[in-house]
């Protein structure tokens, strides 16, 4: 029996529907992910961090961001700038992400600058916390250099907490400690002087003092 003119064969219709679904579902999934990410960008990724628009394009390669840059500010006005080799979200909600080769800079409101380097790290976009996990190096604009086993960066509160052992060297000599805290001095109206940002070593601090040579 001949088919009526203009009427598609059921098998042909089924093939077309399957083909549309194969294309439509991936596009829909990508659209949902992009919408989530764009919404978070408008909300500054939890109120403290933003990624550049160019990094949104990296989602097309499976949500892996290559050489992203992201920045933020604390509630006190301290500025954070970060670069990384890669950032890979762990979940569709983009609440957590893993970072490789993180390079960061914190510009405190009083002028002190903290440079941060870490081989691996993670970021919680809900709490604005960055945890540096391996290969950590901390350098300050007033001459201190420290290494720690872990460094928690609280962008909101503008507090850097290192856990140890912590080894550091600086203008006063070499320091061994169990912990390190970098934060704004409590109760001080900002900005004031370069001494406002405090660097505190904690838990069994040992200082090897190196006196300055005459004429220094």
Polypeptide structure, described:
This protein has three helices and 15 strands. The protein is of the alpha+beta class and 216 residues long. It has a six-stranded antiparallel β-barrel with strand order 7-8-11-12-10-9. A hairpin with a 6-residue loop joins strand 5 (86-89) and strand 6 (96-107). The longest helix has 33 residues, at 10-42. The N and C termini lie far apart (105 Å). 24% of the residues are buried.
Spell out the key features of this protein:
216 residues; alpha+beta; lipopolysaccharide transport protein A fold; 6-stranded antiparallel barrel; 3 helices; 15 strands; elongated; disordered N terminus
Count of folded domains:
1
In DSSP terms (H or I, runs of 4 or more residues), the helix count works out at 3
Let me know the average pLDDT.
Answer: 75
Helix content: 10-25%
Q: Please, what is the CATH homologous superfamily?
A: Lipopolysaccharide (LPS) transport protein A like domain
Q: In the CATH hierarchy, what is the architecture at level 2?
A: Sandwich
How would you sum up the major sheet?
6 strands, antiparallel, barrel
Q: What distance lies between the first and last C-alpha atoms, to the nearest angstrom?
A: 105 Å
Task: Enter the CATH topology name.
Answer: lipopolysaccharide transport protein A fold
The CATH first-level class comes to: Mainly Beta
Question: What global shape is seen?
Answer: elongated
Low-pLDDT regions: 1-6, 23-47, 190-195
Order of helices and strands: HHEHEEEEEEEEEEEEEE
As a percent range, the share of strand residues is 35-45%
**Biggest sheet: strand arrangement:** 7-8-11-12-10-9
Number of strands: 15
């Amino acid at each position: 029996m001949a088919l009526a003119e203009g009427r598609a064969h059921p098998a042909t219709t089924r093939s077309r529907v399957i083909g549309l679904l194969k294309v439509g579902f991936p596009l829909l999934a990508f659209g949902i992910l992009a919408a989530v990410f764009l919404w978070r960008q408008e909300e500054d990724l939890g109120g403290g961090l933003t990624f550049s628009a160019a990094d949104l394009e990296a989602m097309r390669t499976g949500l892996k961001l290559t050489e992203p840059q992201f920045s933020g500010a604390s509630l006190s006005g301290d500025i954070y700038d970060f670069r990384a080799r890669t950032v890979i979200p762990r979940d569709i909600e983009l609440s957590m992400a893993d970072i490789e080769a993180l390079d960061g800079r914190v510009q405190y409101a009083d002028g002190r600058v903290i440079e941060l380097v870490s081989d691996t790290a993670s970021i919680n976009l809900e709490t604005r916390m960055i945890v540096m996990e391996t290969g950590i190096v901390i350098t300050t604009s007033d001459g201190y250099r420290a290494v720690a086993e872990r460094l928690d960066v609280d962008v909101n509160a503008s507090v850097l907490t290192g856990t140890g052992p912590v080894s550091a060297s600086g203008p006063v000599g070499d320091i061994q400690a169990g912990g390190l805290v970098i934060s704004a001095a409590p109760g001080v109206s900002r900005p004031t002087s370069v001494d406002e940002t405090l660097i505190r070593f904690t838990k069994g601090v040992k200082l090897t003092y190196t006196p300055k040579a005459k004429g220094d």
